[in-house]
Pyridoxal phosphate homeostasis protein (Gordonia alkanivorans CGMCC 6845), 251 residues
Amino acid sequence: MSDSLDDARTAELSERLEAVRGRLDAAVAAAGRPTGACALLVVTKYFPADDVRRLLNLGVRSFGESREPEAGRKVAEVLADWTPEDSTDVPVFDMIGTVQSKKARSIARWARAVHSVDRPKVVEALGRAARAALDEGERTARLGVLLQVSLDGDPQRGGVVEADLPALAEQVSSGDSLQLRGLMVIAPLTGERKYWMAESARIHNAFRDRYADAVELSAGMSGDMEEAVAAGSTCVRVGTAIMGDRPLLSQ
Ligand SMILES: *Cc1c(COP(=O)(O)O)cnc(C)c1O
């Protein structure tokens, strides 16, 4: 680790990361699921490249970002001076925020997967962008796609209702540059968390019956990890519990 990053912030991140890993392991065990059944995506949106470097030094390899151009710049900055141990040790960055079609081209340069796909126009833009990135050698694998499900139908919060999932899934699968990986949910703020998570599990199970490769269920954040893991989440997206409160100036 470079000495300049071996500081109080690293100690703080290390402590919170261990606490979250402990919560996640306990939740997976309590749900009777195998160790490692649920991945941890550390959400570093609004935090600087040096925090990503600190987390890399602490062993984190999966990150979530939510906005362009902040994300693209940060990823490029971090990767410029990071040498992986080997090809299996390369950090991955997922896009978890709302996608604007005009940003698709830059997202396709850095994202392993996009968790927040919820409109035909975005599927089309990402498909074209991923094809161009593959052709130009900017990526080697297809761009992963998780369809964001709206549990309560509130259009403000993004996502598609269950009935509209098949049409989007068909659109994703019809090209050769995107790969349908699963579903993403953000639990509504009102109502019982357990109820929403049970709904997520039901919708995901039904979806997977039809699209066997759609194994991922991205569900759970700092406040509802345990309920999400109990409902079968394969990826929790945790920001605040590890990073602390997001800086206000960049909201
Ligand atoms: C910011 C964000 C998170 C992280 O939420 P925390 O409550 O800070 O853990 C997770 N998912 C999405 C889609 C986000 O935008």
Q: What stands out?
A: The longest strand covers residues 178-185.
